[in-house]
Specification:
Layout: E1 3-7, H1 11-17, E2 28-32, E3 37-38, E4 53-55, E5 57-63, E6 79-87, E7 89-90, H2 91-99, H3 105-108, E8 114-116, E9 120-121, E10 132-137, E11 140-146, H4 154-162, E12 172-174, E13 182-183, E14 189-194, E15 197-203
Parallel strand pairs: 1-12, 3-8
Antiparallel strand pairs: 1-2, 4-7, 4-13, 5-6, 5-12, 6-8, 6-9, 10-11, 10-14, 14-15
Amino acid sequence: MKIIAVGMNYVAHCHELHANESLPKEPVIFMKPDSALLKDSKPFFIPDFSKRMDYETELVVRICRLGKNIAPRFAHRYYDAVTVGIDFTARDLQKQLCAKGLPWDLCKGFDGSAVVGTFVPVSRFRSIQDLHFHLCINGNTVQQGHTADMLHHVDKLVSYISQFFTLKTGDLIFTGTPAGVGQVHIDDHIEGYLEGEKLLEFNVK
């Protein structure tokens, strides 16, 4: 099982963290190891190596069949379920790595950094590009997104990624975060919603 993630996929978030950079013409792709996966409402433990742990709320897509070099018009056949997830980022470490021109693996791929909620069938929704999602911390909404605002829509992401990696059943694609990322703290209670339905809930330790 692969965890494939997309960076800089919402304009407002690009301006939020990358104000001096142009918008990406192609999807920005990075990977997380399977040991990064955190599910079943298990608590997230802030690692000792970071003083600034940020949430990035995202729509997560689950791949349901084997595919390589998938045409965009057929991409919808290769995923069957979605949920809300969090791409946890050690922001302080990320800044250090970026300043040195080094890869992001350590700040993005550490254990527990890919949180996923309960998956629901994509067939439940009229369009995957018309989904609203949001994140609450301690009962307060801290981040909201609408998949219509993606720079690169889900079908393009599936097609693009499949040019480089064979997609397999069970692979997960984190499709990028909107504006509003922020820091989590010990004892925070996290809840994620898709179209008003709570699919994600866990505590920070």
